């Protein structure tokens, strides 16, 4: 058995890389460049024919630094066992699907030798293959490939890639990718015992500045035999990152609260004007939301079958259809059931609860009890980061949409004849009737308007919740809480109430849990109503007069 001194792989590969890089630089400056502008890698590729693990690892490092477009094909071929050589001529080839090609040039070989032998690989060579593949990605012309490679190096923290990472940092021009490369270099240096202490201290600062959970894991992985100064710096970095993460966790919960508040606003805004004008406790309001979601499902099904290229416009098409359909259903309910129960809120509660059961069963009979698939347009897919805050596009668009609906409804109530009549009936119903306003017609139109808004709320909710017959049941109680807390019939109160309860709910969840958090909010609202029975923003209306 041949004895071999134990040599650390990182040190060996860096030592082997130095003469190859010198030869490569000499070849480049000596004019050994092909007509296509690619470096001549023939001398590097020839080393694979030496049938030596050391020469193979040496050649891999040189290929990674060569900048040749053919280098990736050679490295991939070696990793897949398709790199071969002729022992007689020392020529190196790649077995491809179309035949055999020259490894250095990629040119097809018409008559390959019959004595081709695979280039051997051991564990050391395989590590060098992985390092070379990562290095070639780090130097790839495609910025996306370089960014992915930097992230991969950060996770692997392979010391073999350090020279290539440093070379990539020197060449990188995209700030975000350069920062990712510097973080990858810092991740390598933290665990590299033979690196200068000053560089490792700077690396700890760089990882601390990253400020995420991976940074904490990396700082905790500092070797136990590291100098005390580095251990102290790492501990301080961990404490700083943990404090930073607590801040971002609160910010993330506030964002979730805003998102939940926008959903509550959409679900409650129609109920606010219905309850405020008519004094009707409409337990079927959630089913209007559900019908709007199923309208979206039907629109998307038609588009998928007839005009798939319109899918990104499916929500824009579904919005007016959902509004019209649910508004007509709401007017039908008002004309056939509710109009006979004015002034009797308990009876309206029971009657609309029965209507909600009928609508749920009707939807189950037509569509079935299972959830239905509603897709998201491309512009609502994905997410982006703000610091450690993750913001999804669908939630962001729903917040924007909820505010747009709110201000559009506010404009209708303030600037249109219908809005004037609605406000008149809300403030003094008998006086409005005496002035010639047809209060029955206003009741029907108001109920239709509130139901229509619930329908377009269902379009939005179809993007973040399951579309099923029970969709509306999850929002009806919270909607009443928002309306009562904000002030019956007051839109600004509904806006403030929705976002206040949404944020409070998400801030309570980490400490009290989802169920107990809702119970605490309910207790708070009960106590609040004891002090302010008309809510945050009191509005004199029909319910108050009665």
Report on this model:
With 546 residues, this protein is mainly alpha-helical. The chain contains 22 helices and six strands. A four-stranded antiparallel β-sheet has the order 3-2-1-4. The protein is elongated and about 110 Å long.
Give a quick precis of the structure:
The chain has 546 residues and is mainly α.
Amount of helix: 55-70%
Q: How many beta-strand segments?
A: 6
Structural class: mainly alpha
Radius of gyration: 34 Å
Beta-strand percent range: under 5%
Mean pLDDT: 82
Please describe the biggest sheet, giving its number of strands, its sense, and whether it closes into a barrel.
Answer: 4 strands, antiparallel
The DSSP helix count reads 22
Order of helices and strands: HHHHEEEEHHHHHHHHHHEEHHHHHHHH
Which word captures the global form? elongated
Distance between the termini: 103 Å
**Any low-confidence stretches, pLDDT <50, length ≥5?**
1-37, 541-546
Strand order of the largest sheet: 3-2-1-4
Main location: membrane
Protein name: Urea ABC transporter permease subunit UrtB
InterPro entries: ABC_transp_permease, ABC_UrtB_bac, BCAA_transport_permease
Organism: Xanthobacter dioxanivorans
